[in-house]
């Protein structure tokens, strides 16, 4: 068994593509994803905030103050002349204007006589254009001035104004700490990335170990060698599991390392506080929970690889398998799904939930017994099936 393992590891090390998916991808993926998301979203928001919006207005004579404010902000708004009979929606869809503001005749009337005023803002709100927010800032300023004038007319004091505007204020007293808050927000995405990287790390060597051996014609040589069939299977299984385990270890280390770099090197306070709250034990438990999951991946991948007639066919089977990994992780991200009850026994979902709880700092460590128990039991059953599968001549020589 160890001779087979040694042989497969040597071939694995020679394969640069496999090494990339085992080592380079986990190390580079976390900063790449975080950096790309921050860069793209930051640029998109900045562009939307700084873009000069083309606008048209009807009924400007009824709101000279608002009209003058729009014209004065030349670096934010640009006036476009239109006819009152034009189709506003067509103008916006044709990108001739970004928005059309329609002002009613009663806009400048006394607040007590006219009551609440409603302006119509026509815009395409399907994209990140921030049109509503930017126009609303100007409207809010005018509304606050009118509000103040009305209160002064009525002789209402500042204290009475607050009471009238907000008779009851519900103050939120959050008992969750920062770690739990941020863990709830990002904890569900960590297992998603980690599981896929572990699967990728195991997938490429498994394709070569089974289907690749068939294509090269070296499988027959192994089968006639004086090695028990189950030892041959276990040697190949350990190679795939080793590749997945290395990916899991590097992924966890990468997550911890880049968290420290972001918190210290970039001086991001909340990241520093969040990362310092996650102990080394939590990272070790994440890695240990991934080992039986990696064994499940390795068993299934080896069965598919030895069943496939070619490397390409094996890749097709394994690519389709990704959906069965994503779905249990997505279940773990749904509201109301937690480690309470039967979810602690559901494979993959239970580990994803446990990783999320470890990141949040709310882990019930007694649940680890059921998590490890169920995952190890399934992994053992799949390894046994893998040995049985490898003993079927109709599978080996399709």
From TrEMBL:
Record bears the keyword Membrane: yes
Keywords, in A-Z order: Membrane, Transmembrane, Transmembrane helix
Leader sequence segment: none
Pfam families for the chain: ABC2_membrane_2
Ion transport found in the keyword field: no
GO cellular component term of the entry, any: plasma membrane
Single GO term (MF): ABC-type transporter activity
Organism encoding this protein: Neptunicella marina
Protein name: ABC transporter permease
PANTHER family reported in the protein's UniProt record: ABC TRANSPORTER PERMEASE, ABC TRANSPORTER PERMEASE PROTEIN NATB
Transmembrane segments: 20-45, 237-263, 283-308, 320-345, 365-390
Superkingdom as given in the UniProt entry: Bacteria
